[in-house]
Write a structure and sequence with these properties.
Layout (H helix, E strand, L loop, with lengths): L20 H13 L3 H14 L4 H15 L5 H21 L4 H17 L1 H22 L4 H18 L4 H14 L13 H9 L6
């Protein structure tokens, strides 16, 4: 799971004269993302500082910190990123308890806990992660990130504990199709299509 990566989908909106300061700050943060997750996290933190009541920048700070936590080799640094993201995720859950995107993020953050210390966290967190994705799918059965997240988690888990990934690969194909009609609101999560394509071309190639 340490090799897990997520390719960032193109979600930068067209710049118009009617843009708000928030729009401009968010677009700048997405541009910073092209440099890397750390640059993005720092940029989204600046947006969050000016927009404390908006869940979107808080989501992206936690998301980019979680992505960072899969990177590097320093245990303590990665654990700090996981913990910092968890604080924000807990805040997001309190304000939006039934938001599938936040649940997807929570599951991904716990997945990073497993990647960091699989022996200690693997069996402890596997059931929790699947339960979180299942809850997200109950709230929105056609959310491609929920479908993809659960399938990818099970595909990666099968490398360690075994298991048939046929149905999971079918789920990835379903998610890829749903990405074609996925129309989130401005700046809301839209990532995942490239990741689904990568899984189908690699882990699911012979399925």
């Amino acid at each position: 799971m340490k090799s897990l990566y997520i390719t960032i989908a193109t979600i930068i909106s067209s710049v118009t004269f009617a843009q708000t300061n928030f729009d401009q700050e968010m677009n700048q943060a997405f541009l910073a993302w092209q440099i890397g997750n750390q640059a993005a996290a720092e940029s989204f933190q600046k947006v969050l500082k000016n927009n404390q009541d908006n869940w979107i920048p808080k989501y992206y700070v936690a998301f980019t910190q979680t992505l960072q936590s899969f990177e590097g080799s320093d245990f303590n640094s990665r654990q700090t990123l996981i913990d910092e993201a968890q604080v924000l995720i807990n805040q997001l859950e309190k304000s939006k308890p039934n938001n599938p995107e936040i649940l997807n993020l929570k599951a991904l953050n716990l997945t990073s806990e497993i990647a960091l210390n699989p022996m200690a966290n693997g069996m402890v967190l596997m059931e929790d992660i699947n339960s979180i994705y299942s809850k997200a799918l109950l709230l929105n059965p056609t959310n491609p990130r929920s479908i993809l997240g659960k399938a990818e988690f099970n595909i990666n888990a099968s490398k360690f504990v075994g298991g048939d990934i046929t149905n999971d690969c079918k789920a990835v194909k379903k998610a890829l199709a749903l990405f074609e009609t996925d129309k989130p609101a401005k700046f809301e999560p839209s990532w995942g299509k490239d990741r689904a394509e990568n899984l189908l071309n690699n882990d699911c190639k012979n399925q």
